[in-house]
Amino acid sequence: MTPQPHPRRAMPGLAAATALAAALPLAAQSPDPEAMIARIEAAQPDRPGDELAAMTMDELMEHFHVPGMSVAVIHDFDIHWARGYGTADVETGAAVDTETMFQAASMSKPVAAMGSLRAVQDGLFGLDDDVNDILTSWRLDGGAFTAADPVTPRTLLSHISGLGDAFGFPGYDPDAPLPSVVQILEGHELSNVGPIFMERRPWEAFEYSGGGVTLQQQALEDARGRPFADVLRTDVLQPLGMTRSSFEQPISPANDRNAARAHDDEGRSRGPKWHVYPEMAAAGLWTTASDLARFLVEVQRSVRGESNRVLDRAHAREMITPVGVGDFAVGFSVSKRGQGWYFDHGGSNWGFRGTMAAHTVKGYGMAILTNADQGGALAGEVGRRIQDAYAWDSLTEPVPRGYAPPVQREAVAVDRGVLARYVGTYRLNAELDVVVTLGDDGLLVTPTGQPTLPLFAESETEFFLRAANAQITFVLTANGEVEGLILHQGGRDNRAEKIG
């Protein structure tokens, strides 16, 4: 028997607003693209006293040590302009143009979600079907957590499946042997992350889960009987005209000829040109800002009933209608800013950062891609300028759920005797320990099955990572003994007890 859909609470007023959108007139005269570009690239005189506002675009990129960036702006349900900035690869000096491909990182997730929704529309499975009824190559053991409600495509793609992840996917060196998706799900020795695991019942709470999206990747591949990258190429990318986009991992030599290199937080080459992500649905899309903008416009127009190149109106609405727990729909985060409702997502891969956002009814949006670890902060400022210039109904910087642009943090010196107190093993959950060691240059942190990363001190108890947007606070007892740590990541605080 096919499980019945779980009751869901739609966002108040969102359905009505979407239905009315078709009646909204477009602007009588579109602003001049070159004038808007010049305004966004210049210093911002309307924000006195703001250090970033006083900088030009070139100065911002230098300030944040970001070699290259690609930007596309949507106005009146169309791409108003797109432009490349800076350098795609500091080793070759190649310039960024509008055809330069970047890693979309977690912005892969909503694009992949459209592929699953297309399979739903085609009748291969239902959004509320048990994922184990779709999978043929693997099986999720939900145990007692799934006794009442199964894990389904809807819960996986809106991050309420009950699966728990503490860290994102670090990717693989191009020369490293790659695990299959099933091996990743199982936590095989080839995988650099632990196995996926149930942490709570489905529908109980929101927890951002790249592992859950990877499980849905395998389900879609099993249902179609074809490789995931091929399915997304034929079902989503080609119909939308996303000709400079691919889920192929690693990137093909032909596409790599105009692909950006990964850079660190100082804008230096990270060694290998990029990392490889077999977790394609969660982090594996290579794309351009213009192609992401085409994707956003298609969602906007499909929701209005004006386009159905991939999805009809009913299935497109699933992408912008929150499921009732958390603020995610199927693929996108949905949020209110000022008087407007937006759907958005951000991305953070090894050496790549980006963001995209679009209004649910008013026909504007943006996509920003960068090739360095401080690119999120740059994208935040550029996004603010785009909103100001086009008078969006929200004048706040876009910060998508699941990704927060990193705050600029300054490291301070801490006595090695203080650092030595923190050495030990900390247990986050039954599947994941965090081991803290002391190296020549300071503390190092190693999550179970993941690479060792340096920690940088902000104070004697507060530390941050530069390789990921995460912070750690060590917790002390009243007499100064170390009893645990708190991992701050993705808007959540996860406490770990010191066990050794």
Automatic annotation (TrEMBL):
Residue ranges constituting the Peptidase S12 Pab87-related C-terminal domain according to the UniProt record: 409-488
Chain spans, region Disordered: 246-273
Residue stretches of biased makeup (Basic and acidic residues): 258-269
Superkingdom, natural source: Bacteria
Signal peptide: 1-28
Molecular function, one GO term: hydrolase activity
Beta-lactamase-related domain segment(s): 56-389
UniProt keywords, alphabetically: Hydrolase, Signal
Keyword Signal recorded: yes
SUPFAM superfamilies with a match to the protein in the record: beta-lactamase/transpeptidase-like (SSF56601)
Full protein name: Serine hydrolase
PROSITE patterns xrefs: TAT
